[in-house]
Amino acid sequence: MKKLLLSVAFLSATFIGANAQAISFEASEGFTLGDIRDQNGWAVTSVGENIFSTTQVVTNELSSHGDYSFKIAATPEANGQSATVVGGFYSFPSVAFNSIEFDIYIDDEGGSDYALRLADIGGAEAYVAAIYFGYEGDMNTLTGNGPSTIATEVGTWENATWYSFKIEMTGGQIIYSINGEVVQTDSSDGISGNIDHLRFVHDNFNQQFGTGGAGYIDNIRINGATFSVEDFASNFSVYPNPATNVINVANSADVINNVTITDLNGRTVKQVTSGVNEAQINISDLAQGVYILNATSNGKSFTQKIVKQ
């Protein structure tokens, strides 16, 4: 690693159970495309007085679950940093932490370090556990215990590749797994197991070198949470897709209240009130390209990409 990495992480505020949380940055979870700042309590790096990074965004460019993910990219207003401090931050009520699972994809060959860190800001230790992705392709874990930390190199990562990670705290141990394989086990003695802060960050060296790299995170699950949106989404069908003149949206389980179509810049181009199980939308007047269709039924939302030919 070219420098000591001091940050990372992320997480959502969708409560599925007493201590379980899940997030995939979908419209059905209350997220919209664009700047993540102030979305569901998310904060981003400050780059000046009342000036904030605008390149930490919810995107539909890439995802491992659903249609959206969280993207962190170079911040033009900031230079390369000595630590991983540029990105998105989330603070939530401290929970009894058992595990976190998440997917990550980094497409950056320009020299940036990335990180995911779990922290107990309210406790004695700031850093509880973290995974760091060095610009030279090394992966490192870090287990915190007050001012003492244990850093261990656990492997390498390939550019532009999805990885699935899991961090567990059980039986006096912190266990790190990559793609289902345990790669590191550390003692959790002296660590409370309460987590109240998550960060997903980079050091902005891609901006300094002008390479424009980015990282994506998706499919976050804390304490074994699952995505109830999956069962809901299975009731929907959208056809034909691609389409030229008309697109049909059907819900086999409930009536469709509204259908909204937005372009990739987040601008609404169609909005239809339905009230039936199958809605038909005329898209003949839209320009050719990719759009995002969002349908709501009984307070829940379904999102899918559509292509206008």
Give me the secondary-structure topology.
Blueprint: E1 21-23, E2 34-35, E3 43-44, E4 46-48, E5 51-52, E6 56-59, E7 69-73, E8 86-96, E9 99-107, E10 114-119, E11 127-133, E12 138-145, E13 148-156, E14 162-170, E15 173-178, E16 181-187, E17 194-202, H1 205-208, E18 214-222, H2 229-233, E19 236-239, E20 246-251, E21 256-262, E22 268-276, E23 278-282, E24 289-297, E25 300-308
Antiparallel strand pairs: 1-18, 2-6, 3-8, 4-5, 6-7, 7-18, 8-17, 9-14, 9-18, 10-11, 10-17, 11-12, 12-13, 14-15, 15-16, 19-20, 20-23, 21-22, 21-24, 24-25
H/E element sequence: EEEEEEEEEEEEEEEEEHEHEEEEEEE
Report the biggest beta sheet as strand number plus sense, adding barrel if it closes: 9 strands, antiparallel
Distance between the termini: 47 Å
Helix content percent band: under 10%
Mean of residue pLDDT?
79
Q: Radius of gyration over alpha carbons?
A: 21 Å
Reported by name, the CATH topology of the largest domain is Jelly Rolls
Count of separate structural domains: 2
Q: How many helices?
A: 2
The coarse silhouette is globular
Q: In oligomeric terms, what are we looking at? A: single chain
**Any guess at the CATH architecture of the largest domain?**
Sandwich
